[in-house]
Specification:
With about 140 residues, the protein is mostly helical. The protein has helices at about 5-15, 25-40, 55-75, 80-95, 105-140. The protein is flat.
């Protein structure tokens, strides 16, 4: 907005809405008058009562309970691995296959997995160390003496 337009608008607004000037001697009277208007308004606020019909209240409570139950059922923590293994053993037993678990094979698979993860970690650490050493060499090489 241009300054001239703002200035003309402000002047017209101030002429329409005069500021009430209070003499210095009557400041306390003016304050009491304003406080009386604030404390005792002309129209007291009416209380608003909100009430649902019985069927609507029952429906709302039922819907809330259904949602809570749904959340509890969906957010169940996953079963541990031992539970899955036991369930598979029971399924195999029902199918007539041998129930004995080959723990040595499971242990061997676990060792192989651990060795693989350890090897990958060592490779990542070695690569990171190599990059750090190269960075140090670059800094030493190009640092002015």
């Amino acid at each position: 907005m241009r300054a001239e337009l703002w200035d003309s608008w402000l002047r017209s607004w101030l002429t329409q809405h005069r500021v009430r000037e209070i003499p210095a001697s009557s400041c306390s009277g003016y304050t009491q008058e304003v406080m009386a208007r604030i404390r005792h308004p002309a129209h007291a606020p009416a209380l608003v009562r909100f009430r649902l019909p019985e069927w609507q209240a029952a429906f709302t409570v039922g819907a809330a309970l259904a949602c809570a139950l749904l959340v509890l059922l969906v957010n169940r923590p996953p079963a541990p691995l031992t539970t899955h293994i036991e369930q598979e053993r029971l399924i195999l037993a029902d199918a007539g296959k041998p129930q004995k678990l080959n723990t040595s094979e499971l242990v061997e698979q676990l060792r192989e997995t651990d060795q693989f993860i350890l090897a990958k970690t060592i490779e990542d650490v070695a690569a990171e160390d190599l990059l750090n050493e190269l960075k140090q060499l670059d800094e030493e090489r190009f640092t002015p003496s």
